[in-house]
Amino acid sequence: MSSTLGQARAPGAPELYFYPPPYKLPNGSLSPSILTVAAEQITDLFPSVKEMDGVVLLIAWNQLCPRPNACDFALIDRVLNYWGPRGKKVVLSLSTMGFPVKVMVEGKERFLEETPEWVLRDVRTYPAHSPTIGVIAGMDVSEGSSHVDTAFPSHLDQRFLSHVSHVVQQLAAKYDGNPVISYVRIGTGLLGEDNPIPPSGAGLLADQKIPGFTVASWLSYCDRITSIYLDAFHRSQLEFDISFLPAAYGRVATQTERIAIERFIQFLSDKRVFVAFNGLESADLEYLHATSGPAPVHALNFLRKAKQNGDRIGLEEVSPIVNPRMQNVSAMAEAVKSLGADRIVLFGIDAGAINFARNGANPTNASTVQFVTGQGKSPEATGREVEELLHLIGY
Fold first, then answer.
1. What pLDDT digit, counting tens, does each position of 221-246 carry?
2. What CATH code is carried by the domain that includes residue 128?
3. d(CA 326, CA 310)
């Protein structure tokens, strides 16, 4: 590997951001979420990497506003105050709906719903047998992961849109134009992405499980949420992460819906919204050369067209580098360069692995070591693999 890694990046190399690493709860177990569940997870306990431009602060609405008219922005303030003086930027993303996340309250493990309970009581909901982020001891994992019965808000309910609009306006009033914030994500579905719940990127089952769901209704919802952010934020760079829409475009959308999706993507371009895709994996290089196939083919095609139109675009890993889908770092780097991505987002586990490979064991990479060794992998070897990816991209 080149010894110049960590010095000036090559011309055209993308910005580099990381999610926080898993959070080690007081009982020693991990909450393996890209959500920030505690401020120290993305500040004092973040395994800083010298090449990075910043971090992604993904925060659940329920954590920000657990009670009506009582939002607490202290966590966001602490993150901005930590990274600003260190010369790093923050991507701010509010998740208004998503899988229950493992946390600890008063010494007991429990799941945090991402939508506030007071919102769920006031809007139409639908039941779901939902995967969880993290496992509580004793849970049944026979389905391949842990699940709980819960309820999600309906994107068809105007009251839900009104509540979202209110919290977005509060965020904008406090943070629009903040110099530490590089991007504000337009949060629609799962973890701030364009993804209905249950997630539909693979099987496109949302229309079978969400009452009244159609591709057109989801697109209309995305359009309205985007308008809410555009009306609220005037100085910060907005971002939209595509996921379901390209999947629907390639598999289940009618011709009329396909045209509407194309118009929406063009609308994002016209409004100078940064478009990103959670799809960076080894297969991307093959997908880039295809004209039909699975969802990434269409998502990458949308990104390519946006780039050709002069827009800036982003790619995000589908999972940490320890996943078999991520093992061909040469192909991943070539896809990033071929597409001309302006920003990439990697997992905090990858940041922790690099930190471990360079600095040895320390408190900031402890949760990464626990996670990676639990996968039967070497933290140092994993870190070197991420370093190789960065080197090939131009760091």
1. 999 999 999 999 999 999 999 999 99
2. 3.20.20.80
3. 29
